[in-house]
Amino acid sequence: RHAKAGSRAGIAGSGGCLASLLKEVEGTLQTTIRATLSPLRGLPSESPLHATIRAALADALRRGLGETNERRQREVLRALLTLAGAVDRHRDDVTAKGRPLGDGELQVVLAECAHLTASLGAAAAPEAEALERAALTSSSDPAFGVRCEAAALGGALALSVPDRAASLATMALRGATAEHHALVDLASAPPAGAQARPRQKDAAQLLRGGMCALHGGTALASAVLRASAESTPYLLDEALAVAEGLVMRQHDDLLSAGALVVCARAGWGVLGAVVASASHSWLRTRARRLSEVWQRSIEWAGDESSQAAAEVRLTCLEACLSSVAA
Q1: Orientation of helix 165-187 relative to helix 200-227, angle to 10°
Q2: Which one of 146, 240, 278, 282 is most buried, counting C-beta atoms within 10 A?
C-alpha cells in the first residue's frame, strides 16, 4: 500500500517493523526478509519509485541489524546468502515458497551481505565461500545495479577475509578473459547464412550477455584489487595482462561500437585498480609499459582518421584518464 502511494516514510516504517523481527524470530529468517523486500516485488527498475523504495528498505534493514549481536548477524548473513542462491536451499519455507529474487530485491540482499561482511570482519570467514559464490554468480547478472552490488560485496569480502582476495580476483579476471574471447569469437563468426553463425536474434542476446558478464567480472576484480592491502606481483601481472588485452580492442575494428566501449572501459577500470593497489617498486618496474599503453590510447582518441566515432573515442579517453588519476 505504501509503495503504491509512493510514501518513503511509510515504506521505511513498514520495513523497519519487519526488520525488527530479525532480532527475535527463529527459523523463519528467509520468510521475514522476503516480507521486508516485498514492496520491490514486481516493481520495474525504471520506475521512479524503485530507487526510493530500495534505499528505504536497505536503511531499515541496516538499522535493525545494527542492534543485533554477532551471532544473530551471522545467522542473518547466511539467510541473505541463501536467498541470493549462494547457499543450498534446504529449509521448508525456502524450498516450498522460494522463487528467484527480482533485480531490486537482489540488489538489497547483496548490499546487506556486503555491509554485514564489513561489520563482522574476520567473523565472516565461515561464510567466505558462500560470499565468494554470491559475488561471482551475481557479477554476470543482466541488471547493472546487481553487478555493481556484486562488486561491492567482493570488495567487502577482500577487506574482511584477506586470504580470499587473491583467489576471488583471479577467478573474476579469468572469467572476464573468457567473456572477452567469446565476444571476439562471436564477432568473427562466419557471414550470415552459414550454419555456424547463430541467428541474428540469438547473436544479439549472446552479445548482450557477454558484455554484461565482462563488465561484472572486471568490476568485481577491480573492487577486490582496490580493497586488498597488498596484492602479489603475480596477481598484478595477470590483471595488467587482462587490462591490456581489453584496452587494445580500441585499435581494431572487429567489434561493434558498443562492445568496443565495454571492453575498453572494463580494461581501464582494471588498470586503474592495478595502479591504485600496486606497490611503488612494482610500479617502477612497469612504468614504461604503463606509459606506452596510456600514450597509445590518448593518441588514438585524437586520431581523426580512426574508424571509431568521435563519441566512442571520447568515452574511451575518459576511462583512460580516470585510470591515470588512480
Answers
A1: 150
A2: 146
Q: What confidence tens digit (pLDDT) does each residue in 221-265 have?
A: 999 999 987 789 999 999 999 999 999 988 877 888 888 899 999
pTM assigned to the model: 0.85
Lowest mean pLDDT: which of 95-99, 119-123, 297-301? 95-99
CA neighbor of 124 nearest in space, from 106, 107, 112: 112
Under a CB-based contact definition with an 8 Å cutoff, are residues 159 and 225 in contact? Answer: no
Could you tell me how far CA 170 lies from the centroid of its own chain? 15
Q: C-alpha distances in angstroms, 146 versus 21, 84, 215, 287?
A: 26, 11, 12, 35
d(CA 84, CA 103): 11
∠187-193-195 over CA atoms, to 5°?
A: 80
Closest to 109 measured CA to CA, from 73, 141, 157, 153 = 153
